[in-house]
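Quick illustration, no need to memorize.
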Amino acid sequence: MRLASLLSLLAAAGLVAAEGYTDTPLITGTQWHVHDSTRPQPPRAELSKLKCNEAAAPAGAIVLFDGKDAATEWEPDTVTHAKPSKNAPTLWLVKDGAMIARGNGIRTKRTFGDISLHAEWRSAEGYENDPKKKSQGSSNSGIFFMSTYELQVLDCWKNETYADGMTAAIYGQKPPLFNACLPSRSWNSYDVEWTAPRFNADGTVASKARITVVMNGVKVQDDSEYIGPSSHKKNPPYVKHADKMPLALQFHGDAVEYRNFWVVEKK
């Protein structure tokens, strides 16, 4: 019996979590559907080996958030992968050295192509005591490279969701190699090497976007390829875009916090 079929039977019997879908499109090159409820969860990294990397920005880095000011580098984003506020667009709250998600997404005023990125984040205060805050409601946010390609931010310390939507997943496409979450309300670090896609003059893809991610000292994405833009329950194709575009941070209804956020542009 194929693994997916076996897991489907176990899920139906209530023996494994069945969060997700099996009626969405297949992910290109795999046997799995987008957000497949039967896709196996990655193993947990050994807790003793996990440590948030609090590295300061090196010489030549662009500091996108220094713990004090959000307005210099960021602006409200009510278009890209955001849940727009019914009120006027707003920047995120800055408190105790962190930028706290609220109201709508935000994006950088600068545009970027290939970069090294460092960001630290932690789950929303108090949510872990709310039984309704589980699966994708477990402190959901995301870093969108070029406002298009998502690296998932989610608290999966004691929370299970579809594997391609968990912490450090290429959302809707590829789970991380490990669940490297620290306990809820701990600071987590992402150290990312991002390579933008290249397009031919006729709009076809010359090379796809790629990402390597080290989370809390553990490599969780290893030169992984994006099959296309990030989307919920879909598998859209690449569409030619500019060589440089803003970074975006998603507001998904949860007050996720960010700090020590910087990038180094690659030449």
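Residues 3 and 35 are 16 Å apart (CA to CA).
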